[in-house]
From TrEMBL:
Record protein name field: Parvulin-like PPIase
Domain PpiC: 205-303
Organism taxonomic ancestry: Bacteria, Pseudomonadati, Pseudomonadota, Alphaproteobacteria, Sphingomonadales
InterPro entries assigned to the protein according to its UniProt record, in alphabetical order: OMP_Chaperone_SurA, PPIase_dom_sf, PPIase_PpiC, SurA_N, Trigger_fact/SurA_dom_sf
Naturally occurring in which organism (per UniProt): Sphingomonas mucosissima
GO molecular function: peptidyl-prolyl cis-trans isomerase activity
Coiled coil start-end: none
Signal peptide: 1-19
Keywords recorded for this protein, A-Z: Chaperone, Isomerase, Periplasm, Rotamase, Signal
Source organism superkingdom: Bacteria
Length: 455
């Protein structure tokens, strides 16, 4: 197949919905027709209602090789970055999901190249010393030495080169923003004062910390996108990867760059459909697809609180954890029997002082931690610990592979009433929001003006 040169801004966006539904993909030869008089033209491009699509519309026809303003991206670059993402998120995906991820990664790599190129126009270059320092820090986050991390990357099908280029792209873009955008972002005192006044007026109002995946849907594709969203929710609920992984790779909202994080929002700030859904959610719950104007949203509730009111999830707990382990080869029946005995034994606890004695009778391990915040526990345990009294134990939880456990509450330090944020804090938040907005605009301009050749 010959080269196909395109202006990047004309390349179609998210393909998840169509790919998952199998709509309009894989067609060979012949024209496809669309005849729907009910669709309004909201694009400003004067696209005719009755149109013909000539040739194939399979996005995979474009091989995962591209030249971005003379900078070559190879199939190996894409595959190594895909392997890096899967290793970092400790996730294994089916073949069709990997194909979709590969398309998304190619777009991310193109953005990365554009960001590095733009930074160089401002005489910004990331040195080898800076790359080495960041690489070593990431290796530490993976609990490995730099050399062990290099070996790990190779074993996963990735490479040091791939992660160093990602580091270079992030550092170069951040430095470019600080030099060319941040100096021109200003926040006035009156804006800060207005926000403080609104916070005072909203004291006691419920707020939600939400993550979102947004999928657009034109009227003729509603059913296909809905089905794709349901499929995506099924993958999320398997728990093989965090919600942020799916948001970053599949959401069409601008928040995908921050793993779909909407931050703290009040119901009045959300579309009515999302506000109603959030009000009924429990922390840690995923809901959707929620119909919203233009498509569907999938929501994940990270936390909730009341404005300027102490959050019980910020309370620090003193805990003792009892754990029973199961020998290799334990049958399901044997595990169930021992777990039942464990649960029965917990009724004999007489406060935290008796934990070690009771644990010895069933050969359970005991560990203690005196500074665990409720919000740092898994969501199901948060709800349990919020209602537990000092000296009581949680119901048993866990699995035969890693052990079955209980948490015994030995003490709780509740937080004091929340305070108004300071003027400087609000100003910094506003400035960062505006920098992020201008950064998105700058990247859109770079995409529009770039020459990208797919081979």
């Amino acid at each position: 197949m010959g080269k196909k040169a395109l202006r990047f801004g004309r390349v179609a966006g998210m393909v998840l919905a169509l790919a998952a539904a199998g709509a309009a993909t894989g067609q060979q030869g012949g024209p496809a027709t669309v005849n729907d008089q009910s669709l309004p033209d909201n694009t400003g491009l004067n696209i005719p209602q009755n149109l013909e699509i000539f040739g194939t519309v399979d996005p995979n026809v474009r091989k995962a090789t591209a030249i971005v303003n003379d900078n070559v991206l190879t199939r190996t670059d894409v595959d190594q970055r895909v392997a890096l993402i899967m290793a970092a998120n400790n996730v294994k995906l089916p073949a069709e999901e990997i194909d979709r991820l590969r398309l998304q990664v190619l777009r991310q790599l193109i953005d990365e190249v554009l960001q590095i190129q733009q930074a160089k126009t401002a005489d910004i270059t990331i040195t080898d010393a800076e790359l080495n320092q960041s690489f070593d820090r990431i290796a530490t986050n993976f609990n490995r030495t730099p050399e062990q991390f290099r070996t790990f990357l190779r074993e996963q099908g990735s490479s040091e080169r791939s992660i160093r280029r990602q580091i270079e792209g992030e550092l170069a873009w951040q430095r470019y923003l600080r030099r060319r955008i941040e100096p021109f972002v200003n926040v006035g005192e009156e804006e800060v004062k207005a926000i403080l006044d609104r916070l005072k007026a909203a004291q006691g109002t419920e707020e939600f910390h939400l993550n979102e995946i947004y999928l657009s849907a034109t009227p003729d594709k509603t059913e296909q996108v809905y089905g794709a969203a349901r499929q995506l929710i099924g993958e999320i609920q398997k728990g093989q990867a965090p919600f942020g992984y799916f948001a970053r790779n599949f959401s069409e909202a601008s928040t995908r760059g921050v793993n779909g994080d909407l931050g703290w929002v009040r119901g009045a700030q959300l579309p009515a459909e999302l506000s109603e859904a959030a009000a009924q959610m429990q922390v840690g719950q995923v809901v959707g697809p929620v119909p919203v104007p233009g498509g569907f949203s999938i929501l994940y509730l990270v936390d909730k609180r009341q404005v300027l009111t102490a959050n019980p999830r910020d309370a620090k707990l003193s805990l003792k954890q009892m754990t029973i382990k199961f020998p290799r080869g334990t049958t399901q029946a044997q595990a169930s029997q021992r777990t039942a005995t464990f649960a029965s034994t917990l009724t004999k606890l007489q406060g935290c002082g008796s934990v070690e004695r009771v644990a010895a009778t069933i050969n359970a391990e005991v560990v203690q931690n005196d500074a665990i915040r409720i919000r740092d526990l898994p969501a199901p345990l948060q709800e349990i610990m919020l209602n537990l009294q000092v000296g009581q134990a949680s119901p048993p939880f866990g699995n035969p592979e890693e052990g079955v456990r209980t948490l015994v509450l030995c003490g709780r330090d509740d937080t004091s009433s929340a305070q108004l944020p300071g003027t400087e804090q609000i100003q910094n938040q506003l400035e960062q929001q505006r920098v992020n907005l201008r950064a998105q605009q700058a990247l859109r301009d770079l995409r529009r003006d770039a020459i990208v050749e797919y081979r």
